Amino acid sequence: MSDFEQFHYDSYQSSYTIDDQEAYNSYGFNENLCGSKKSQTGEQPPASAFIPSEMLLSSQSYTGQILQPMYSPDTHLSYADGFDEEPPLLEELGINFEHIWQKTLTVLNPMKPADGSIMNETDLTGPVVFCLALGGTLLLVGKVHFGYVYGMSAIGCLAMHALLNLMSIPGVSHGCVASVLGYCLLPMVILSVSAVVFSLQGILGISLALFIIGWCSLSASKIFTSALAMEGQQLLIAYPCALLYGLFALLTVF
Known about the structure:
Mean pLDDT: 75
Strand content: under 5%
Largest sheet: none
Number of helices: 12
Main location: membrane
Distance between the termini: 140 Å
Radius of gyration: 45 Å
Family: Belongs to the YIP1 family.
Protein name: Protein YIPF7
Order of helices and strands: HHHHHHHHHHHH
Membrane topology: Multi-pass membrane protein
Low-confidence stretches: 11-34, 36-43
GO cellular component, one term: membrane
């Protein structure tokens, strides 16, 4: 009986000591943990230290709501002024209908003096339209010559560019040469339209073709001399232009 009481007393004493030690250890651990957290929070700078002052000011001055931003008439006016100052879309693309019309009238009237400032522009809208018109009218006669039209145009532009750079002091760009030669192709479109109405393989057709060749070469040489300040050299420029447009006339007649 004494042994059992001694065992019971020992076990009760040991369990009480363990529980008490665990509670003490846990309390000390929690105290150390709280102390470490306080030390960490004390060492760390506040979160506002990393935020720029501009952001703090902007966030404080904002008075709008979520999905309902604050209205400012100055912002609306600035956007409106920006849209008003933008150039038109056609002007950004380099398409000026007034200049196209002036160049067309200059080609249609070989005796009219050409404006060198306008003719020196690299406008390819008119030349592309006239090349398509020439190919389309030839297609109405049964001649599919789109490749020949574009091929001869490209080779003729390169040859005239090299020749004009040798003859003129300021020089000329490829775009300017292509623009002038393309606009002066308009009388050739008139010849191809005539081929739809009647046959050009005769005296009347040959005479009309020679007249159209002289018309195109005279207009092109006049524009080149005015744009490049090549006074007294119009006949020298008109000869290679007549050779180039003679190829288009042969393509149209035969």
